């Protein structure tokens, strides 16, 4: 039986719960396979399923040398354009190395189309929207993300405004006025950039979420409170 909650209309577009613990597919529990855009993602390279101690949680470990990443076909990710729509992104991340930029999620290309979200080499969170020869970037201060521990990170966008979150708290940011991104005819990736050869993740990712509305600061805090006892042990 497929476990999902699409019919509840809660505004969650993607929820990669990572219940599988085995195999090369990860199923979106917010979208049952019967819907038109089934977000079943393919594990490419050799990301490793890891059973987390005590809680029996299963998470994915990404080795940048392979590289390891998750991908969703272009035809199955058209609802992730978010050109003029409010949206929110959430993920639990653990970085082993920051000698390169580390992409969390992306469906776009710099100065071309779409959007992407990553941790840069200085430990700053960055969110980018793109249109032709232009881009807008909202970013946190350096050192917000460090190696060797779990972080819950989030992005919200409403109109021109983007906000960044860490562990349920709103971060001080250098904010851009975000123009609607150009529609992207690209795959959706977790853990790598559009080339599938650079900016690959190094470490763990758990429970990536995408919602088609702007989470409030209280919403982000509640997600942090619900999840932190699973990984922060």
What are its keywords?
single chain; 233 residues; mainly beta; Jelly Rolls; 9-stranded antiparallel β-sheet; 8-stranded antiparallel β-sheet; 6% helix
Please explain how this structure is put together:
This protein is mainly beta. It has a single domain (11-227), classed as Jelly Rolls. Helices cover 6% and strands 39% of the residues. It contains 1 helix and 17 strands. The chain has one helix at 217-231; strands at residues 12-15, 25-26, 41-44, 48-51, 58-62, 69-72, 87-95, 102-109, 113-119, 125-131, 134-140, 150-158, 161-166, 169-170, 173-174, 188-190, 203-211. The strands form 2 sheets. It has a 9-stranded antiparallel β-sheet with strand order 2-3-6-16-8-9-10-11-15, with no helix packed on it. Strands 1, 4, 5, 7, 12, 13, 14 and 17 form an 8-stranded antiparallel β-sheet that branches. The mean pLDDT is 92.
Number of domains: 1
Classify the oligomer.
single chain
- How many individual β-strands? 17
Q: Report how far the terminal alpha carbons are from each other.
A: 31 Å
Q: What is the helix/strand order? A: EEEEEEEEEEEEEEEEEH
CATH topology: Jelly Rolls
The percentage of residues in β strands lies in 35-45%
Percentage of helical residues? under 10%
CATH architectural designation: Sandwich
CATH class: Mainly Beta
The description of the largest β-sheet is:
9 strands, antiparallel
Total count of helical runs of at least 4 residues: 1
Which consecutive residue ranges, at least 5 long each, have pLDDT under 50?
none
Radius of gyration: 16 Å
